[in-house]
Task: inverse folding
């Protein structure tokens, strides 16, 4: 046992698997792992995304791809068999692949539960289970193997009213619980933790970013969208020697969104899918006075009319976004196309 954490920790000689590594957050994570020296396998359903990512990142290190649909048991087994064929040991498994579905409460289809839960929850458990022999073989007392599941802040608290991603939010709460359950089951040989991201710019959040990035950023306490270094740095920590006493943790990576105080009078809450409180005058004040809790002001502070108008415009933008997100939004385009509930993304 060492007394201090070595700096500049590297993953040379170690194998990592990143599901959904062909684009978005998975690609950000893959790039970080390659920069640390790991050999990385990425997987998803679309060969084209995988090929593009391998071509883009192979100058950074040893990256290869395997096509698998993780919503099916066969896909999970095929990917596990592929990894087993490459190596007897797997040091890092990042369960990142995820799907979403949006539709109003009256129309939300049963199939959207199967589709989302199969990959987001069942796939996470199944792949981890299938790769246990390789994860166990990679573990040492000082350096256990790591499983990192990508949850969401939408699994930490209910998204705002009107954000109709029912199976997604439930699935992400499921990811967090699977993380804790596996962590206690697989201790002490394998560490299992989850990252719960807030907004990052990816295909999943395409509509949101295109139509209201500024409004969304204004509701993040740190006033910005997540950057690639935010996620790769968190994964670096969770794969390195500084985190060997951490398992079963759900780490929000959200610029402070879930830490924000909730005003029960607000009809929405800040979040990835339902940005912040709606501006309105606080009780007993003139319309030009408002609680300064959505834009960085102090509670109860008095706003000048121009600031109030600016805040109202942001709040309006957020309401508009909420409407846009209602059905078929934050859904992969191919799902949205086939959703009978899809709406025009116009306010
Ligand atoms: N972006 C955000 O703001 C945000 C916030 C919180 C959490 N997250 C989570 O972060 C993870 C990555 O999402 P992202 O934002 O990067 O979105 P994304 O660009 O849509 O990436 C999703 C990835 O999952 C793969 N995938 C989807 N269904 C799959 C299936 N059945 N089998 C295998 N792979 C599948 C996709 O590839 P194929 O389509 O080719 O299969 C893609 O590579 C997800 O778990 C998501 O829930 C994202």
Result:
């Amino acid at each position: 046992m060492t007394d201090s954490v070595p700096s500049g920790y590297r993953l040379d000689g170690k194998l990592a698997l990143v599901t959904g590594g062909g684009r978005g957050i998975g690609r950000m994570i893959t790039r970080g792992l390659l920069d640390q020296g790991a050999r990385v396998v990425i997987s998803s359903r679309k060969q084209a995304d995988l090929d593009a990512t391998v071509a883009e990142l192979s100058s950074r290190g040893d990256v290869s791809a395997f096509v698998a649909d993780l919503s099916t048991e066969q896909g999970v087994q095929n990917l596990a068999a592929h990894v087993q064929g490459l190596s007897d040991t797997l040091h890092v498994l990042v369960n990142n692949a995820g799907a979403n579905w949006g539709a109003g409460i009256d129309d939300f289809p049963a199939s959207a539960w199967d589709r989302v839960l199969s990959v987001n929850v069942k796939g996470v458990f199944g792949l981890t289970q299938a790769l246990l022999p390789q994860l166990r073989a990679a573990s040492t007392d000082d350096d256990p193997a790591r499983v990192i599941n990508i949850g969401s802040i939408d699994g930490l608290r209910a998204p705002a009213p009107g954000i109709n991603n029912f199976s997604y939010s439930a699935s992400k709460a499921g990811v967090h619980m699977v993380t804790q359950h596996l962590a206690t089951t697989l201790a002490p040989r394998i560490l299992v933790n989850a990252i719960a991201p807030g907004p990052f710019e990816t295909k999943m959040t395409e509509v949101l970013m295109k139509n209201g990035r500024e409004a969304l950023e204004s509701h993040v306490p740190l006033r910005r969208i997540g950057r690639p270094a935010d996620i790769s740095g968190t994964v670096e920590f969770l794969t390195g020697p500084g985190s060997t006493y951490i398992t079963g943790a759900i780490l929000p990576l959200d610029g402070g969104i879930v830490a924000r105080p909730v005003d029960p009078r607000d009809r929405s809450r800040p979040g990835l899918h339902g940005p912040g409180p709606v501006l309105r005058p606080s009780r007993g004040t003139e319309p030009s006075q408002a609680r300064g809790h959505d834009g960085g002001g102090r509670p109860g502070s008095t706003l000048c009319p121009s600031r109030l108008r600016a805040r109202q415009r942001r709040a309006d933008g957020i309401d508009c976004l909420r409407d846009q997100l209602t059905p078929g939004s934050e859904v992969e385009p191919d799902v949205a196309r086939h959703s009978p509930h899809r709406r025009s993304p116009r306010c």
Observations:
- Residues 19-20, 22-26, 44-46, 49, 69-71, 96-99, 119, 150, 152, 197, 199-200, 202-205, 272, 332 surround NAP (CB under 6 Å).
- The chain has ten helices and seven strands.
- The chain has a mean pLDDT of 81.
